[in-house]
Amino acid sequence: MKLHTNNAFSVGKQFPINIITHFHKPGDEYQIHSHEFIELIYVYSGKGYHTYKDATHNLSEGDICVIKPGEYHGYYTDNDSTMETYLVLFQPEVLREELFNLSNVEEIM
To answer: By C-alpha distance, which of 80, 20, 69 is closest to 44?
Structure first.
């Protein structure tokens, strides 16, 4: 299984966030992989499937998935489906202070 590195996806210390749009054609498959960064997947349109922790789940417009560093996942479309996604890739440090502040709010916990 492939490991996507910070350097390969331009997610580094100087600019810790990268946003990628991806159009999945019918029958596209993004192989099972992991990465060194957090990946937020937003399904803008269409439908497909997401494989995560040895289970496959339907994806459709409006769905959001968050994948932590080191977790394996992949996604694909049927032969008659397309899917457009926005991928927000970022370093965990980007949210560290925000998550710490949220942990002090009892209503959220």
So the answer is: 20
